[in-house]
Amino acid sequence: MTDISHLKYIQWRPIGVCDTGTGKERKAKMFSRFDLASVTGPEVKRENWREQTKVMELIQRYARDVADLSTLTNGMHAPEIDEIKLVGAVLGHNQTPNLNLESAAGKVQFFQVSFKEGKTKKPARKWTKWLKWILISMTAVLVMILMILLINRFSLLSLKNKEQSASVCSSNRQNAAYTAELAEIRKSLLTELSRLPAWLTFKEARVHCTGGRMLVKQHEQRLLQCLLTVRNRTKNIPASSRPDLNQIEACAVTLCRRKLPHLTSSCKRL
């Protein structure tokens, strides 16, 4: 008698997985070439295919696809495998294979799977969903608070700078303190320039930044000329060595905002 213990024997070669339906109601899925080679490997026999992990995993994977196709799983919420049998069938050209009957004379075989209603998965606990949304909401709120704090900080810094700029040279032009402030700003800048190695070459800057008794208009013109000259003369000096022009620039902005006719040309150059 011919040995048919190996599944690879041509008269008993399994070609797929089917359900337990009858006739045209039966649904099946054929093995791919790669999976067929695994199922019919030399180590797989009719007595041990259930012990072959790889074979069982393949059958279970194909069974899930058959469950989606089968009409026998209609109404099941979570169909799962109830039983697996190796059944044979004679496949003729004009006949529907009878895959339900185990056939000693079958030419091909299927792994026949029956299904049952499985345990439905417990829905995720509601508190985990709520916790997730709470964490997301808290993170969003913290980010918004941080953004608001940063915006407020920058706004305060900007306002502080504007207030400082507005306070420089903002006193009444008729007051003696006003001209004294202009002279002091120029003097302070000269002191900074005197510390630079190239101070001796700043002849033009010294001329425009110094001055004795002058009228208010002359003080204002002299300050703008001083700023323009020093800024032009020191623009090529490394930033770390440049004099601090913040105070004189703030004063110049205040003067130009007054739109005084005698300062028009200088203000256009700022």
Report the sheet-strand fraction.
5-15%
Structural class: alpha+beta
Task: Report Rg.
Answer: 47 Å
Shape: rod-shaped
Low-confidence stretches: 92-106
* Major sheet: arrangement of strands: 2-1-4-3
Overall domain count: 3
- N/C terminus separation: 110 Å
Characterize the main sheet.
Answer: 4 strands, mixed
Order of helices and strands: EEHHEEHHHHHH
Look at the structure and give the mean pLDDT.
78
Instruction: Estimate percent helicity.
Output: 40-55%
In short:
The protein contains 8 helices and 4 strands. Helix content is 47%, strand content 11%.
What does this structure look like?
This protein has a four-stranded mixed β-sheet. The protein has helices spanning 33-39, 53-69, 126-167, 176-193, 203-209, 216-234, 246-257, 264-268; strands at 13-18, 28-30, 79-89, 108-117. The chain is 47% helix and 11% strand. With 270 residues, the protein is an alpha+beta fold. The chain is built from eight helices and four strands, in the order ββααββαααααα. The longest helix is centred in the middle third of the chain and has 42 residues, at 126-167. It has three domains: 10-117, no CATH class; 122-167; 172-268.
Architecture blueprint of SSEs:
Blueprint: E1 13-18, E2 28-30, H1 33-39, H2 53-69, E3 79-89, E4 108-117, H3 126-167, H4 176-193, H5 203-209, H6 216-234, H7 246-257, H8 264-268
Parallel strand pairs: 1-4
Antiparallel strand pairs: 1-2, 3-4
Helix pairs in contact: 3-7, 4-6, 5-6, 6-7
